[in-house]
Amino acid sequence: MANPVLPSSGVLSPLGLDAVRISPGFWGDRVALNREVTIAHCREWEEREGWIGNFRGEGPRRGREFSDSEIYKLLEAMAWADHPDLPELAETVARVQEGDGYINTRWSGSRYTDLEWGHELYCYGHLIQAGVARLRMHGEDRLTRVATRAADHVCRRFMEGTETCGHPVIEMALVELYRVTGVERYLEMARRFVERRGLPALADIPFGRGYFQDDVPVRQAQVFRGHVVRALYLASGVVDVAVETGDEELLKAVEAQWERTVARRTHLTGGMGSRHQDESFGEDYELPPDRAYNETCASIASIMLAHRLLLATGDVRYADLTERTLYNMLATGVALDGRSFFYANPLQVRVPAVPHDGVNHAAEGGLRSPWFDVSCCPNNVARTLASLPAYLATSGADGVRIHQYTPGEISHGDLRLRVETGYPWDGTVTVRVLEGGAGRISLRVPAWASSATLAYQEAAASPDTRETRAVAPGYADVEREWRAGDALVLELPMEPRWTYPDRRIDALRGCVTVERGPLVYCAESVGDEPPLAEVAVRPGAPLSEHARGEVVELETEAVLGASPAGPWPYRDRPHGWNGGPAATLRLIPYHRWGNRGPATMRVWLPVAD
Ligand SMILES: [Zn+2]
Q1: What would you report as the CA-atom Rg of the chain, rounded to the nearest whole angstrom?
Q2: Which secondary-structure segment (H or E) carries 44?
Q3: Which residues does the UniProt record annotate as the domain Non-reducing end beta-L-arabinofuranosidase-like GH127 C-terminal (predicted)?
């Protein structure tokens, strides 16, 4: 079963890369580009920056203290993509492993002297995830032996005591290694790492222990906090431990933390993180569009967590957030050519970024960069796209559920299905039965789809005799004896819609935006196009659709502001809009912004008075 996450119990079981085949389409194209371009791009930069050379002992060590983890993430991507370069790169890595299983190019000689910032266990976590991917796709080899020897070393060194790592990820990696090998000490080690956290297990740091979720035991926490990627990787591991040990209380704790975080600490795009200083969540409702951080890795971590919660509970809201995050964050994080990446993903950019094609030393999100000093995001995108088919559909006692729509084929038991769709541009999703069998087929109706319909078309019957019914958000089920040629046709309403923020989000008060299907839209200004600093819209105004190739763009009537420059931006009475001339405002899908060169951009638009 070729899955990054394969729980031994839960409401739903994932269908893996062996059961879901993706074909050309929104995601199929990106998965192919990832395999053909992005993986080689990452390899090239890791060589250029000397991070792979560190494993060959070439010259003084280069890169940050956690750069080994980037090679491991790339190895994981290669494992899912069945990439021919994997054995040779794994061989390079293996040479550094010491006799007792320890492996790290930075800390050898001063092992575990800085658990807060050293990232040694974090690096193992990614190595183990690469090993698990290889075991599931290929079987045992050099890479999987390196990974299990490292895991055994961790169990020997850390099973007793109170220590843990400043950056979680080893927790979920160890549980997955337990799932694939059946060796119980890996699960027990992960459980102890989870239970130690917050006692506390780490030294205090200037950001405070909340930064690495060591401020409160995980069972007592109310919300995700601190560094976003750390928080969501930890929560993913906690769900894994809870599921494998049958710990309902622990699972419920994470569900409650997720619920509050989604309700109060999540941007419209599904992005999480409002503070640049420590890459952390802000407080509740602290969601500024221009200072949104929304690291690409944080969105990947959010998808990993939501997927685990979906499998454990079957609750549709986890699949809904995954959809939002896939289309508006993961698709945004990588350029259309697969060779440059966003680290931060703000919802407003006031000043066009300066183009460059080298290493970006900052993480600000003005223009995608080919590489970063801290290049977690490109490798994370690569491994996620390489395993993406495993996130689309599940099986359960009740049959097959399809959570995300993109062209491809899904097999489960006797059933073989083909999904045909132009989603997310088009709202028609046809699920055609290629090989029949008995069972239920469930299709997710997204939370935004308030007037969806589902039709059943019997193979032999004419289309006029279709049974069509309205279906509410959630899962729409059809159970029957399926025959080849039968089809389900889901129609999702794709009219663009105005979206308003909660009034407690101070930074967005007085603004609106537009969504269409699962996509968030934005205004972008490139070159001599009208600037966006003073553009306002009238919510409820018509939104017209314009096809540009397959992409659906929107237009609406806008007002250009005409505020005179003043010496002081405050006064004793409200500022009117001083509306200037009317103009047509073009809106593009947020994930496509920044592909035409340096630009200003905004998702949230002021309401004209
Ligand atoms: Zn990152």
Answers
A1: 24
A2: helix 39-48
A3: 497-606
Q: How far is the CA of 300 from the centre of ligand 1 (A)?
A: 9
In this predicted structure, what is the pLDDT of residue 571?
92
CA of 372 to the centre of ligand 1 (A): 9
What single-letter amino acid sits at 264?
A: R
Q: Is the pLDDT of residue 315 over 80?
A: yes
Separation of CA 67 and ligand 1 centre (Å): 12
Its pTM stands at: 0.98
For residue 424, is the peptide bond before it cis, meaning its omega torsion is within 30 degrees of 0? yes
- Average pLDDT over all residues of the chain: 96
- Residue 376 CA to ligand 1 center (angstroms) comes to 4
Are the CB atoms for 429 and 453 separated by under 8 Å? no
CA of 221 to the centre of ligand 1 (A): 24
Task: Please answer whether residues 586 and 521 qualify as being in contact, where contact means their C-beta atoms are separated by less than 8 angstroms.
Answer: no
271 neighbors 292 (Cβ within 8 angstroms) = yes
Q: How far is the CA of 497 from the centre of ligand 1 (A)?
A: 31
pLDDT of residue 466: 83
Amino acid symbol at 44: E
Residues 6+ apart with CB under 8 A from 227: 207, 211, 212, 278, 279, 280
Q: Which residues lie near ion ligand 1 (Cβ < 5 Å)?
A: 295, 297, 376-377
Cα–Cα distance, 341 to 347 (Å, whole number): 16
Per-residue DSSP letter, 567: S
- Cα 583 from Cα 565, distance rounded (Å): 21
What is the 299 CA–ligand 1 centroid distance (Å)?
A: 9
Neighbours of 467 (CB within 10 A): 11
Burial class of 599 by CB neighbour count within 10 A (0 to 12, 13 to 18, 19+): buried
C-alpha distances in Å from residue 422, one per residue of 282, 405, 408, 492: 37, 9, 12, 12
Query: Which two three-digit tokens encode residue 515?
Result: 């969504």
Residue 36 Cα to ligand 1 middle (Å): 21
Do 176 and 151 touch, CB atoms closer than 8 A?
no
Band of the pLDDT at 575, cuts 50, 70, 90? Answer: confident
Residue 456 phi/psi, 5° resolution? -105, 125
C-alpha 69 to ligand 1 mean position (Å)? 12
Give SS3 for 167: coil
